Amino acid sequence: MLTKTIQDTYILWKEQAVSDPDLRAELTAMAGDEARIEDAFYRNLAFGTGGLRGVIGAGTNRMNVYTVAKASQGLANYVLSTHTAQNNRESAAPRIAISFDSRIKSDLFSQIAAGVFAANGIDVFIYPELMPTPCLSYAVRALRCDAGIMVTASHNPSKYNGYKVYGPDGCQITTEAAAAILKEIEALDPFRDVKQISFEEGLSNAGRKDTAAGSIEYIGEDVYTAFIEEVKKQSLLGDTPVSRDDAIVYTPLNGTGLKPVLRALRESGYSNITVVKEQEQPDGHFPTCPYPNPEIREAMQLGIEYAARTGADLLLATDPDCDRVGIAVRAPKTEGVAAASSDGSEAVSPEDYILLSGNETGVLLLDYVCSRRQALGTMPEDPVFVKTIVTTDMAERIAEHYGVRTVNVLTGFKYIGEQIGLLEKAGHADSYILGFEESYGYLSGNYVRDKDAVDGAFLICEMFSYYKSQGISLPEKLAELYRTYGYSLNTLHSTEFDGSEGFRKMQSIMQGFRGESAPTAFGGLAIERALDYATGIDGLPTSDVLKYFLEGGTSVVVRPSGTEPKLKVYISVSAPNKAAAEASEQAIYTDLAARFA
Predict the structure, then answer these.
(1) C-alpha to C-alpha distance for 70 and 67, rounded to whole angstroms
(2) How many Å is the maximal CA-CA distance in the chain?
(3) Across 195-216, average pLDDT
(4) What is the pLDDT of residues 145-187, one digit of tens each?
(5) How do strand 123-126 and strand 95-100 relate by DSSP bridges?
(6) What stretches of 497-591 adopt beta strand conformation (E)?
(7) Domains of the chain, CATH where assigned
(8) How confident is residue 344, by pLDDT bands cut at 50, 70 and 90?
(9) What are phi and psi of 439, to 5 degrees?
(10) How far is CA 195 from CA 77, 132, 493, in A?
(11) What is the pLDDT of residues 534-575, one digit of tens each?
(12) Residue 53 in 3-state DSSP?
């Protein structure tokens, strides 16, 4: 039976949520379905350092024009209370930058947010068309804004949308800022307390002096071009001659990456790029890849088929908001089997392609960046590499080999961006040479403060071309790194816990890891040390994360996702060879999975 609070909230929404016909129809259709009503109203959509993310639909636990407007009013209140005039700007009014991706209602949600900000006297700068997340991070700093929002649900299925919030440093907001904004949001009634003007009215306010409302202006082409130029500056080829006409396949997975990725590559001389036609144009329904995540083969399959047809050695795929990039590469032929030629004259099968994980691509990029900087004489005096605690420890061994200092941070690229900011404040921004996380996020420059798949795609193509000119494939280079630094197997397992009951179960499981039933071993390997980041470790913010160090150099991390109803398990196995590593990993995960049943 529904609680009185849930029932009353549902009735209020039926009466008040009248501006969106989609919501009116959904609220009416809910009548009598208590389970559906409870799931839509049992809580307010969670707001944290990742902003908002949820299923699109009616209810307090859904992404809709009312939850977006309420969050925007809370953010507006926070910005107004913390804003200080900047002397190097032509206006003392607060500023917020906005970008959006291809998801369902992303354009509408971005316009709703802009109208709320403008109604509160905040000037808004919004891209005139969908743009990647890193372009938003860049615009926040380039336009000297107080905050920024990116309307996206990253790589979630099409039923989701979200709302990332950025601070004036171009990073996603800190834990402290998120808590302050949440306090503002929770104090609001979505139907009474939200100030709002239309998007069109905000556009008409540009240049006016006779209104207290802020203006809405489109971000100019010059900002976008400056971003592309920063990406191209990340080149590490120098005068080294390489061919840029090898066949490459690219898919933006119906997201935002098409224009910026192709522009950066083509302006750098890449002339043989085939785009996956079915996934070329923005489409929030993602008809050919229901789960548009370049980490999984299903999302990459159509691109792999294109690669096989064209004989390409490399497939690139960026997620909908183009902050993550995944790759598939043609595996080296086994001894005694002729390799397919690069022009595709011999038969090439989709089965000939393998996906490289975020960790594998990351260590390849780290070694490439370090080796090329040494060769070009551009390695800074105190080079710094930043990674998350769930990212492969093999990266630290590579960094140490090149004399590069490794900084470990909590999961989330915002913490990598934060480290860039700290280096900048200390006058050492150029010490940063690379940051990456196992979830396919990479950044080699300090021009933005979030992962950048435009930069990632650019560097991967350059690395591919550089090794190809030496007759080395990326799998062969990776095998060389394993021989040098030891074999490492890193896996990620996610278990979904949907709805209110799932949320409660996920909390109970995490409590079990800390209680009397806390584990002492996984897969027959004794736990030698356990770190509970909820207590605050090594100066890092508190976080609901547990890391176990097992005998033999293996580690396990367990944490709830900050943006999805999932528990995530990261297993990093060190072993003499692949077979031994896989057997150990399977035994460890079997023990862990039993706790999730």
Answers:
(1) 5
(2) 79
(3) 89
(4) 999 999 999 999 999 999 999 999 999 998 899 999 999 999 9
(5) parallel
(6) 521-522, 525-532, 546-550, 554-560, 566-574
(7) 63-219 (3.40.120.10), 226-236+244-482 (3.40.120.10), 488-596 (3.30.310.50)
(8) very low
(9) -90, 35
(10) 11, 28, 43
(11) 988 877 888 899 999 999 888 999 999 876 789 999 999 988
(12) strand
- Mean pLDDT across 462-491: 94
Amino acid at 283: D
With CA atoms as reference, report the closest residue to 354 among 330, 372, 320, 382.
330
Over 80: is that where the pLDDT of 89 sits?
A: no
Give the side-chain half-sphere CA count within 13 A for 72. Answer: 34
Q: What is the mean pLDDT of residues 87-114?
A: 88
> How many other β-carbons are positioned within 10 Å of the β-carbon of residue 564?
22
Q: What is the pLDDT of residue 213?
A: 85
Q: How many CB atoms lie within 10 A of CB 12?
A: 15
Question: Does residue 243 carry a catalytic annotation?
Answer: no
> Could you tell me which of 314, 387, 298, 394 has the C-alpha nearest to residue 356?
314
Residue 6 pairs in a beta bridge with none
Q: Which of 72, 106, 110, 154 is catalytic?
A: 154
Q: How confident is the model at residue 290 (pLDDT cuts 50, 70, 90)?
A: confident
**From residue 173, how far is each of 14, 154, 159, 414 by CA, in Å?**
33, 17, 25, 8
User: Measured at the alpha carbon of residue 244, what is the angle toward residues 243 and 246, in degrees to the nearest 5?
Assistant: 90
- State the DSSP code for 63: B
Give the pLDDT of residue 588.
96
- Cα–Cα–Cα angle for 582, 588, 591, rounded to 5 degrees: 140
C-alpha 297/C-alpha 303 separation (Å) is: 10
Separation of alpha carbons 358 and 435, rounded Å: 12
- pLDDT exceeds cutoff 50 at 133: yes
Tokens of 9: 């909230």
What CA dihedral angle connects 55, 56, 58 and 64, to 10 degrees? 120
The pTM of this model reads 0.91
Amino acid code (one letter) for 81? S
Distance CA 159, CA 54 (A): 8
Say if CB 328 and CB 248 are below 8 A apart. no
Asked if residue 129 lies in contact with residue 138, where contact means CB atoms within 8 angstroms, the answer is no
Query: Residue 334 has what pLDDT?
Result: 59
Token pair of 297 as six digits: 């083969």
State the average pLDDT over residues 116-121: 97
Please classify residue 582 by burial: count the beta carbons closer than 10 Å to its beta carbon, then call 0-12 exposed, 13-18 middle and 19+ buried: middle
Q: How many whole angstroms separate alpha carbon 351 and alpha carbon 347?
A: 11
